[in-house]
Amino acid sequence: MPWAPVSNFSLLASQSAVNDVWNGYYQDILLINNAIVAIPNAQKVANDPAFTTDDVNLYLGQCYFLRAFMYYNIAQYFGDDKCILRETIPSKEADYSQAPATAAETFAFVESDLKKAEDLLKSGVNTTSGYDKGRVTRGSAAALLGKWYINHGMYDKAAAEFKKILPGVGDASYGSYALVDNYRDNFTKTAENNNESVFEIQFKDINSNAGWSNNDVHWLVQNWTMNNKADPDMWWNFAVPVFKLTDGDANHNGFESWTETINGTPTTVYDYRAYETFWGVPNGANFTYKEVTKDWKVQGWDQINIVGQAGCYGIRKYGYDSTSKTDMGFDAAWQDVNLRIIRLADVMLLYAECMANLNPGNVTATDVNSAIYWVDKVRDRANKVAVDQSHLYSTRAGISGQLPSATALMTSKGWTLLQLVQHERYVEGYCEGWRKEDLKRWKVGTSFVKSKTNWQGYQSLTLPVPQDEKDRNPNMK
């Protein structure tokens, strides 16, 4: 895996990482198209009265969502005009060398699949009795369609989709969602498929299965979180420069902080989300290797040099705090915690972004059609006392965070509504995969990303079509 070149945006059509992304999505599309063909036929073959038309509609709705999700990601990575659209199973050689669709055709295809999913999933919402937790829901389809619209600058259509699942103003036929009180519950095994989750990738509970495959677990922890000073079983590939935590620059990045007197000493306390997001934050989370507890200093993040600076951080999201919590027979490099792909806070902030674009003059904090209202909802949750390791500043009983209101922050920084939303998306969703889409949607320039040698602005986020695909498909330019 060419980690260093990819990290520095030295992206080549010949790289295995690029090829893997392309092939992985098209393999899934083939499986989904097989299912779309097979499911109605299965009802006829089974001749089972318990296998109803409603069941068929639920299964097909999930399939249409998943196919749209695959094309959504192909378009994000490679461009709307590089998608090879397939509604059926390839049956002849020419089907494998199909020309890519136009951007307009790709847009219409994904939109159509998600609208079909919304219609077919009428009885598949997160509040439907008996509907399996973790399955795609009608709310999932509305949220993804909203994302498709906003990424194409269609703020009015995006807002209408997002609003369907927003608490207090939503449509009950799309489900009922709410922010969980404890921010960290969005990244733990014990709180999977909670009320904030709109769409998450399900991994099997390894401890409850006699066997497993690589599809049952992921290496997210090994690649992104703990370093090998804290856990010698790790061979981590990712570290966060110190300025990612502290830099309140013109691009609205950085986590807010304030000064408190703790035990008689003036002390910097960060936005409580920083303690849930990072390893290595001063006075941050401990990691226990076997029976040895290692605090943030012993973990050694401040001793690691990257991008010419002393010190960095790791990603704590989705990570275990102790090797004792890892699955039976595994080290912490392997785990089965579900990955939350879309959650309500993401949707709230995207709706706020729509409002910032549609009505930038509305700064009324009590108006549900103002960006301020929804940013405040997310910040209010961030100020709640966390349920986490007891020594963290974020868990002190009765001591809430001191993040100011969205209005006060915007005023103090001289920010527009859009800049306010950009900041909040940075701190709320750090390392959850939001950033790539955000930077592309905002069409950011060269100054927005630091310490990346080949960063040329948002265009750097588009991957080249793999050389293997060009070689085997003469219609792919």
Write a brief structural summary.
With 477 residues, the protein is mainly alpha-helical. The protein is 37% helix and 8% strand.
How does this structure look, described?
By secondary structure, this protein is mainly alpha-helical. It has a domain at 220-325. It is built from 15 helices and 11 strands. The protein has helices at 3-7, 16-46, 53-78, 103-120, 138-150, 155-163, 220-224, 243-246, 273-277, 344-358, 371-382, 406-413, 417-428, 434-442, 467-472, and strands spanning 197-201, 240-241, 257-262, 265-270, 278-279, 287-289, 292-294, 305-306, 309-310, 312-315, 339-343. The strands form 5 sheets. Strands 2-10-5 form a 3-stranded antiparallel β-sheet. A two-stranded antiparallel sheet has the order 1-11. Strand 3 (257-262) and strand 4 (265-270) form a beta hairpin. Helix 6 (155-163) packs antiparallel against helix 10, helix 10 (344-358) runs antiparallel to helix 11 (371-382) and helix 11 (371-382) packs parallel to helix 13. The radius of gyration is 23 Å and the shape is globular. It starts with a helix and ends in a 5-residue tail after the last helix. The model has no long low-confidence stretch (mean pLDDT 92).
